[in-house]
Design brief:
Helix content: 25-40%
Radius of gyration: 22 Å
Largest sheet: 6 strands, parallel
CATH superfamily of the largest domain: SPOUT methyltransferase, trefoil knot domain
Shape: elongated
Order of helices and strands: EHHEHEHEHEEHEHEHEEHEH
Strand order of the largest sheet: 8-7-6-10-9-11
Number of domains: 2
CATH architecture of the largest domain: 3-Layer(aba) Sandwich
Number of helices: 10
């Protein structure tokens, strides 16, 4: 007869529980979190897919619940093992998981995460070596892609101004691919809020009549400001120009070409910042 485990032995993690009803509270919450108001009230977000969930775990983001697709569940999978101490873990049939996923096909794993506590101006580098301000960037995919570029190319923080998408929207979080958890995100920041700071320098991306970015001094500390593709920075630019030195830059394009997607413009400008700071030119 095998001996009983010692009192000091760690308890074995419980296996995921089986879910079989679309009315289960955890599935209802995952569906509800597609709405910005619910995400804001509950301070939660949904992460879909192995890479995004793994990135959240690597950044030690608090996990409320993990849902595994039943048909592809593996007890020895790295995410199964990494989430072993999460209290709420569930096996969900593919059909039910597809009802809460925003993807065309449900992911192997979906997690409900606690949103990182948003920092204030007093908690981030101010003035920054490189900050990013977004005004009116309404598409979640663009916001997520910009956040991913900002994390990769050396931004100290990203401030999301009026009209910009919630960075915790499922599409934004997916496009950011873990960068959501990698750098401070300042939420609900308007140009008026930036104007209360001191010593800031603004580089504003405008669709026309600005200097080519390689002719501007992007090696010096500044905040890069970008707006919606059609409306641009709009009223935010007027506020910024009354408070700080503002340098306007425009990415030259081939005659007759459509305007660059704002996330592509952000990547190009941040790459030029990186080039200037790396080469000294």
């Amino acid at each position: 007869m095998p001996s009983a485990p010692s009192a000091s032995a760690p308890a074995r993690p419980a296996p995921p529980r089986q879910l079989s009803s679309a009315r289960n509270p955890v599935l209802k919450e995952a569906r509800a979190l597609q709405a910005k108001k619910v995400r804001a009230n509950r301070q939660l977000l949904v992460a879909e897919g192995e890479d995004l969930v793994a990135a959240a775990l690597a950044r030690e983001v608090a996990v409320k619940a993990v849902l595994f697709e039943q048909e592809r569940f593996e007890s020895g999978h790295p995410l199964t093992l990494a989430t072993a101490r999460v209290r709420e873990r569930y096996l969900v049939p593919r059909q039910l998981l597809s009802g809460v996923s925003t993807l065309a096909a449900p992911p192997r794993v979906l997690a409900i995460l606690h949103q990182p506590t948003p920092p204030s101006f007093s908690e981030v580098l101010m003035p920054p070596s490189l900050g990013l301000f977004l005004a009116g960037v309404a598409d979640p995919g663009n916001v997520g892609t910009i956040i991913r570029s900002a994390a990769a190319l050396g931004c100290d923080w990203v401030a999301l101004g009026p009209g910009s998408s919630d960075p915790y929207h499922p599409r934004a979080a997916r496009a950011a691919m873990g960068a959501t958890f990698a750098l401070p995100l300042l939420l609900g920041v308007g140009a008026e809020d930036l104007a209360t700071r001191e010593g800031l320098r603004i580089v504003a991306a405008v669709p026309e009549d600005g200097r080519p970015p390689w002719e501007a001094d992007l090696a010096a500390p500044h905040i890069l400001a970008l707006g919606a593709e059609r409306a641009g920075l709009s009223d935010s630019l007027d506020v910024l120009e009354t408070a700080f030195p503002v340098e306007r830059v425009t990415i030259p394009q081939t005659a007759g070409a459509e305007s660059l997607n704002v996330s592509a413009a952000a990547a190009a400008l941040l790459s030029e910042v990186r080039r200037q700071r790396t080469t000294g030119h």
